[in-house]
Write a structure and sequence with these properties.
This protein is an alpha/beta fold and 382 residues long. The chain has 13 helices and nine strands.
Length: 382
């Protein structure tokens, strides 16, 4: 074969390979561009048939064995979602109304199934007194929980509530993150020291669930302002989670909620304890081995008229209908008493995240359970 002909064939082969390679790279680039560009750009670049896209989303047969199948389905689903009316959820993030509900169900259906009666749901014999997992998700989404105190207990509880599908969360605190919070508080990072606790938690929670409605109140609860703050939460609030350290502030918050019939879950002292397996919950009137809750209970009876303890000869105390999270582990001895949560950044007894976090998780689990089962406890302390 003449040399000129050989060179020509080599050039044609090279050009053919280059063309194929260029086509693959261009297709991938266009596909990725379509996936991540704004809505107007997508509308301009694409004119796909809706039915084809739906088949792409749902068919294993079309791309069986293709390692990019999940990516292609995701892109097709994203294109389909823009057919509905869109709404802005976060900074520059656009989600459709239909897609918002779909993503909500995908995020939290596990929680819904946990509390739903699956045997009845599977047989399509759900009675009016029972709930499907979608009913549970709706109930959680519509609820409003206020978390008071975003420290070692409240920060973990707030995230647990958000990850459980609570649709409206109110964060109340005025404190900033200290480096000494690192051992026990969820939001304490090298990059967040000196920043507002509730602002950092809000950013984190929205990253978990962009559809969650987060309200922040930059203030400490005190005996002087507790009534004003609690009144501002009505009538939307479903349950209040008390994660305050100070005895006087905690007492005032419990009393304010009880006066208004607002369900509240209060957390005892987590400092000076090492065994997370000893943490439990019960009515506040039955809390044990917790000096903080003992002093609060005493103040509630003496200053706010709560039910007195059992008379002589009776073992069962009168319930307050207020859930308390506490540990049956004997707490370390107190070096000095501190009745205010405003005075020090770190306590003298020592703390650990596996204890404070468990307090927060137990409190959050109790709240989610009450909402999911529609069995919220209304305080009856008088």
């Amino acid at each position: 074969m003449p040399l000129t002909t050989q060179n020509t064939m080599k050039r044609m082969t090279f050009l053919s390979c280059s063309t194929v390679l260029l086509f693959v790279l261009t297709s991938t680039a266009v596909f990725e561009t379509i996936a991540f560009c704004p809505v107007p750009t997508i509308n301009a670049l694409t004119n796909f048939d809706t039915e084809k896209l739906k088949r792409l989303c749902g068919s294993d047969r079309l791309y069986a064995g293709d390692k990019h199948v999940s990516f292609r389905r995701k892109m097709a689903y994203r294109l389909l979602s823009f057919e509905s009316t869109s709404s802005v959820v976060g900074d520059g993030y656009i989600m459709t109304n239909d897609d918002e509900k779909t993503q909500r169900d995908l995020r939290f259906s596990g929680v819904g199934r946990l509390y739903a009666d699956e045997s009845m749901e599977a047989s399509n014999k759900v009675s009016e007194s029972q709930s499907t997992h979608l009913d549970i998700i709706d109930r959680l989404t519509k609820s409003t929980v206020a978390v008071v105190g975003l420290g070692g207990v409240g920060s973990w509880a707030a995230e647990a509530l958000c990850r459980s599908g609570i649709g409206n969360i109110i964060l109340i605190d005025l404190d900033e993150i200290c480096i000494s919070n690192t051992n026990r508080q969820l939001h304490a990072l090298e990059s967040t020291v000196g920043k507002s606790k509730i602002d950092e938690m809000k950013s984190r929670l929205l990253d978990i669930n962009p559809c969650c409605n987060i309200t922040t109140i930059h203030d400490f609860i005190t005996r002087d302002n507790v009534d004003e703050i609690i009144e501002s939460l009505l009538p939307e609030i479903t349950i209040c989670l008390d994660a305050i350290d100070g005895q006087l502030e905690k007492t005032a918050l419990i009393a304010a909620c009880a006066d208004r019939g607002i369900p509240i879950v209060t957390c005892g002292g987590a400092a000076g304890r090492m065994d997370p397996t000893k943490i439990t919950y019960d009515d506040l009137s039955k809390a044990q081995e917790c000096r903080l809750l003992f002093r609060c209970r005493k103040n509630l009876r003496q200053e706010y008229g709560f039910k007195r303890g059992p008379p002589a000869g009776h073992r069962k105390p009168k319930k307050f209908n207020i859930t308390a999270v506490f540990s049956t582990e004997v707490q370390k001895s107190v070096v000095q008493q501190d009745t205010s949560s405003l005075r020090r950044c770190d306590g003298a007894l020592g703390t650990s995240c596996f204890v404070t976090g468990t307090y927060g998780f137990v409190a959050a689990s109790r709240i989610v359970e009450m909402i999911a089962k529609d069995e919220v406890l209304i305080p009856k302390p008088y």
